[in-house]
Amino acid sequence: MAFGPDITEQLARARADLRMGVPIVFLGDQPVLVLAAETLTAQRLTDLLALGGDPVLAITARRAETLKARAYDGDLARVLLPQDAPPRWVQSVADPADDLRSPMKGPLACARDGSATAHSAALQLTKSARLLPAAVVLDLPDAAAFASKHGLTALYLESALPALAARSPLHPVVNARLPMEVSEAGRLHIFRPEDGGEEHYAIEIGRPDRSKPVLARLHSACFTGDLMGSLKCDCGPQLHAALAQMGAEEQGVLLYLNQEGRGIGLANKMRAYSLQDQGFDTVEANHRLGFEDDERDFRLGSDILKSMGFSSTRLLTNNPRKVQMMEASGIKVTERVPLKVGENRHNTAYLATKAAKSGHLL
Fold first, then answer.
1. Is there a contact between 28 and 158 (Cβ–Cβ < 8 Å)?
2. Whole-angstrom distance, CA of residue 256 vs CA of residue 190
3. Which positions ≥6 away from 99 have C-beta within 8 Å?
4. I need a surface site. Which of 126, 129, 247, 345 has the fewest CB within 10 A?
């Protein structure tokens, strides 16, 4: 009988540990100790430096570009950690909040020899934990014994890599009737991933014919726009307009995906907003934080639609990437239905950037 956690469950533990500032260990050919830069404490940094070796701060190539650090490893850079480095230095390299006030953090020396596979996995983990994509990594030859001694989560890198790259299967949990202002014939479906991540929702209006293209909207959660009425984006108006159109047609499915801030999480989204207040546009802000333009995975939407019995859609979107990803993952898009609402004086530049840099059809 096997009661121990499998690799998916171990990764869920690892994400929780990193969010709390607890180190994790990767085992295998490249055993390392990993700590998230964002949650690093002075005591744990002191303890890590006392272990000796040559710790590095792994950052993404996007963040390295901002800091003029050499990304010898392609999509990431391994910044050498000074032996007297305080947590504030580590966090200032990871977090762009003080970039304008204190732009000179270098010159930053970067490692260029050896494998960076474990470092890449560490960055994938911090991203999926909704932390800043930066991690302190130390080669640790006796990693298994060290993890056992200190009660740390330890997982084999060769097993973790494919699990990190895979899309977690979604399973229906429950659905129930939900009368709404736009339609009394509403039903809310809850879907839960196997990897311990956030649940996603489908709001079904009426009883759409499964043999015909369903009017659908892939809507990423936006706490500020959907709930607070933020004028910095067009998310709230798009959400309500999509539901209103489905109500008028008496059928449709709104897929509400918990991928806040283009997949970087609410805290990082607020960091991006702070950078926008300094004069950077939405794409530049994401890059300075170390993220790509858009970290979302719209294949989740096609997974849910297929689970509900649909094979084609009339997709309410201004984003051609959504159409492409739905088509590539098995849902035929018979029509792109424009959804141009919500422009105001606070978000004009934001919408212009989405059109110019992200290809939105506005």
1. yes
2. 10
3. 66, 288
4. 345
Give one word for 139, left, alpha or beta, with left for phi > 0 and alpha for psi -120 to 50.
Answer: beta
pLDDT of residue 361: 67
Contact at 8 Å (CB) between 64 and 107? no
pLDDT digits (tens, 9 = 90+) for 168-191: 999 999 999 999 999 999 999 999
**Catalytic positions:** 294, 296
* Omega before 107 within 30 of 0, i.e. cis: yes
Give me 192's structure tokens: 């839960």
- How remote is the C-alpha of 86 from its chain's centroid? 28
The answer to whether residues 354 and 282 touch, using CB atoms and an 8 Å cutoff, is yes
Categorise residue 68: left if φ over 0, alpha if ψ from -120 to 50, beta otherwise.
left
Which amino acid does the sequence have at 229? G
Work out the number of other CB atoms within 10 angstroms of the CB of residue 75: 13
Indicate the pTM of the whole model. Answer: 0.92
Q: What percentage of the chain's residues is helix, strand, coil (to nearest 5)?
A: 40, 20, 40
pLDDT in tens, 132-178: 999 999 999 999 999 999 999 999 999 999 999 998 999 999 999 99
Length of the chain: 362
Cα 152 from chain centroid? Answer: 24
Residue spans of alpha helices (H) in 142-199: 143-150, 157-165
SS (H, E, C) 256-294: EECCHHHHCCHHHHHHHHHHHHCCCCHHHHHHHHCCCCC
Yes or no: say if 159 and 82 are a contact pair by the CB < 8 Å rule. Answer: no
Look at residue 78 in the predicted model and tell me its pLDDT.
97
pLDDT at residue 105, rounded to an integer: 65
Q: Tokens standing for 299?
A: 């294949």
